[in-house]
Specification:
It is a single chain. Strands 5, 6, 7, 8, 9, 10, 11, 13 and 14 form a 9-stranded antiparallel β-sheet that branches. Strands 1-4-2-3 form a 4-stranded antiparallel β-sheet. It is built from 8 helices and 15 strands. A hairpin with a 6-residue loop joins β7 and β8. Helices cover 24% and strands 30% of the residues. The relative contact order is 0.13. The chain has 2 domains: 92 residues, Dna Ligase, domain 1; 198 residues, D-amino Acid Aminotransferase, Chain A, domain 1 (2-Layer Sandwich).
Length: 295
Amino acid sequence: MQLEQEGVKVFPQPRVLKIIQDKGLQKLFYQEHNIPTAPFALVANTEEIAQSGMAYPFFQKLRTSGYDGYGVRKVKNEDDLSGSFKAASVIEVMADLQKELSVIVSRNEKGETNAFPVVEMEFNPESNMVQYLFAPARIDNEIAEKATALALEVIEKLDMVGILAVEMFYNKDGSIWVNEVAPRPHNSGHHTIEAGLCSQYEQHLRAILNLAPGSTAALQYGAMVNLLGEKGFEGTPVYAGIEDILGMEGVFVHLYGKSKTKAFRKMGHVTVVGKDAEQVKADANKILTTIKVKA
């Protein structure tokens, strides 16, 4: 904020970051601007959770400091309250999920926006981290248009400049709830490096430099598999099975160069692209079961 006061342009704007860094402020922003999100309550401690009257099961999320699935826990019943986070949190109704979706949108100072095709995500049930994604999402056009319009509404109401990943719950009743947002290039957009005309990184630069948005058209189907550290291993990473996939067509390996692995740490990702959706999905599933990050 000091830089802004000195006349320096900062994107995304600090006032936007202040909202996004606190899941409680995020939820209040959605509520204030009539953006659909899971019903919620803000709580300070276990006693307030117990007094909230929210029906089990529900999710508890730390307002700050949580990331990549950390700081999120499912509260199944009253007995689970003893293990709840002892800090300011959001508790929210559990979505009746059909799919988890993400839409990456951009906006420049002129107010010009664009959106990448909707992606669907599958999460590791233990770590709550994205394990696999497929793009474009296998959903009806009507749902894709609804999700895209909602993501654009979020970035416009934030009056934000930059790139924004909008994660959503697509429920079985057809409703879509905004889960949370990330004001940066995001895990759910890594596939755009190989699968699209313009990557999310280029789009970010275009937005903050006030240039016209790049084309978000997909050249081919894309899938992305996160390489997560295996449970029970900690130390110098060994990418077991990586040689078995390097000869596969349309496969691109991205290792992050981290010197140490531990359970569920993001160590890299693998992108798969191709013209046949089912083949791309099959190759991604093969990669998911082939590469193991050990130590």
